[in-house]
Amino acid sequence: MPPDAGPVQAQRFAAQLLSGPPGRSPIAVAERLLAIQGQDGRGARLSVRSRTSGLTAADVDRALTADRTLVITWLNRGTLHLVASEDYWWLHPLTARPQLQVGCQRVLARLGVSAQDADRGVELVERALADGPLVRTEIAERLIAAGLPGDGGVALHVLMLASLRGSAVRGPVVGAHHAYVLARDWLGPPPRPLDPDVALARLARRYLAGHGPASDRDLAKWAGLPLGQARRGLAAIAAELADRSDGLADLATSARGDVSPPPARLLGPYDPVLLGWASREPILRGHAGIVTVNGLFRPFALVAGEAAGIWAYTGGQVQLRLFGALPDDAAAALAAEARDVQRFLAGSTNTGSEQVGQDPDEVA
């Protein structure tokens, strides 16, 4: 490991709002991180909890439903992400690349849905959502009535295809479910499209705000873009970058300097701190096969900047399994975190997940 890995990691934790002043609201967290992996409903909400203070899962649901300041849709790497609504219109055309639609259509073909029927399914979704929000089971009923296969994955992948094409997003929380809506109806008409180079520059700038210091390969992996595009984006903001000797890029305005490791925290499944860079080794060390298993990212305890255990939320209680003994102060901090997780999730019913679009290299 490079000798400066410790300071770099500490700076990244600060960029991620895991150390230093917390975010003030769910939208503030989304704006800082730009895109938060969201196929696990509970995980997306817990990503907000660990970067704020005093909020609840209901505050995230309110931003998704009443305020319409957050949405979830398929973006980077063809994976569901939670983003600020105002970032949707420029981020979607940049990262929801045509190759992702092709991959989605291939999955539908394996499920017995032809390309023609996939297009028909998207049209059915658009007509159905024109009458208002619908949850996936309601959409599935309409697709089955129209003659599409009843396999549970068909409705999900038709919705994914509609979302990749820019028709639909996951907007309001309805009971224990997250409903789909038409993007134009929910978010209003799209603004004038950004020039691709302007969008790449914005992507690089916003990525570094929540992930710097980082390399061009880190940006490319996170966004699911070719390395050449990541480099174009970083080159476009070269005048805004700090002068560093390690070859990494960071915004000059960040001024993170020497920062301390984050306090002990319980991070949820698919936490952004494991998904923002090409390597997770500085955090996971020898525990990658425990925290990341077969494409699933388990909730884990972060102590002194490294994974120290995994945890689960069962029956309203946090159950923690540590990798080894901890100092008393760290153990006490995790106990306080467990109580806060329970407070944050109390009364929350929307904890479902959509296990689609995982990175092929996320299998440990």
Sheet with the most strands: spatial strand order: 6-9-10-11
Helical fraction = 40-55%
Which residues sit in consecutive blocks of at least 5 with pLDDT less than 50?
Answer: 355-364
Based on CA atoms alone, the radius of gyration comes out at 20 Å
For the largest beta-sheet, the strand count, sense and barrel status come to: 4 strands, antiparallel
Beta percentage is 5-15%
Secondary-structure element order, N to C: HHEHHEEHHHHHEEHHHHEHHEEEEEH
**Intertermini distance:** 20 Å
Question: So how many helices?
Answer: 16
- Overall mean pLDDT stands at 93
Strand count: 11
Structural class: alpha+beta
Question: How would the global form be characterised?
Answer: globular
Number of domains: 3
Task: Describe the secondary structure blueprint for this structure.
Elements: H1 5-15, H2 26-33, E1 36-37, H3 41-49, H4 57-65, E2 70-74, E3 80-84, H5 85-95, H6 98-110, H7 115-129, H8 136-145, H9 152-164, E4 168-174, E5 177-182, H10 183-187, H11 196-211, H12 216-223, H13 227-236, E6 265-267, H14 281-284, H15 288-291, E7 292-293, E8 296-297, E9 300-303, E10 306-314, E11 317-322, H16 328-345
Antiparallel strand pairs: 1-3, 2-3, 4-5, 6-9, 7-8, 9-10, 10-11
Quick gist of this model?
This protein has 16 helices and 11 strands.
Q: Overview of this structure, please?
A:
- The chain folds into 3 domains: 5-93 and 192-240, no CATH class; 99-165, no CATH class; 265-345, no CATH class.
- The protein is built from 16 helices and 11 strands.
- The protein is 45% helix and 14% strand.
- The longest helix is centred in the C-terminal third of the chain and has 18 residues, at 328-345.
- The protein is of the alpha+beta class and 364 residues long.
- The protein has helices spanning 5-15, 26-33, 41-49, 57-65, 85-95, 98-110, 115-129, 136-145, 152-164, 183-187, 196-211, 216-223, 227-236, 281-284, 288-291, 328-345; strands at residues 36-37, 70-74, 80-84, 168-174, 177-182, 265-267, 292-293, 296-297, 300-303, 306-314, 317-322.
- The chain has a 4-stranded antiparallel sheet with strand order 6-9-10-11. Strands 1-3-2 form a 3-stranded antiparallel sheet. The chain has a two-stranded antiparallel sheet with strand order 4-5.
- Strand 7 (292-293) and strand 8 (296-297) form a beta hairpin.
